[in-house]
Amino acid sequence: MKIWGEIVEHLILLKQNEAVHLDPDRLAELYDQLGETGAENVVCRALEELAVRLSHTERCYREGRLSDMRKSAHSLCAIADQIGMVLLSRVACDVTRCTDGCDRVALAATLARLLRIGERSLSEIWDLQDMSV
Fold first, then answer.
1. What is the pTM of this model?
2. What is the pLDDT of residues 13-70, one digit of tens each?
3. What is the tally of helices (H) and strands (E) in the chain?
């Protein structure tokens, strides 16, 4: 038991704190094209769909349905890109590449990153919308 105690003393918790990136030009472009009401509707629907897709992607992974998970992650790429969530889009595309490469370790790590980035991105864009109201 002494050895276990020594090992526990050396455990380090790594906090994943990565800044999310939103493209304000993409949002401005949407507002220019669709007007305020139209753009807000698109953004709100996209945010709802992103939340659903993130949850679905994780569920498919846990259930071993990698083909469905890949489809869900792929759709996240396009939806996130549409509303300027650059990092979320890029990481979702990384998940699809990890799935294609059959690298389970990379997939697990990249999916965990996708879920962290997704949560933070959704929070940040909601905060931006609250400031603009």
1. 0.76
2. 555 666 666 788 888 888 999 998 998 898 889 989 999 999 999 999 999 999 999 9
3. 5, 0
DSSP string across 69-114: HHHHHHHHHHHHHHTTBHHHHHHHHHHHHHHHTT-HHHHHHHHHHH
CB 26 within 8 A of CB 84: yes
- CA distances in angstroms from 89 to 27, 79, 95, 130, listed in the order given: 15, 8, 10, 23
Q: Is 6 exposed, middle or buried (0-12, 13-18, 19+ CB in 10 A)?
A: exposed
Q: Residue 47 in contact with residue 125, Cβ under 8 Å?
A: yes
Contacts of 39 (CB under 8 A, 6+ apart): 27, 30, 31, 33
Residues near 60 by beta carbon (within 8 Å), at least 6 away in sequence: 66, 68, 69, 72
How far, in Å, CA of 97 to CA of 91, rounded?
10
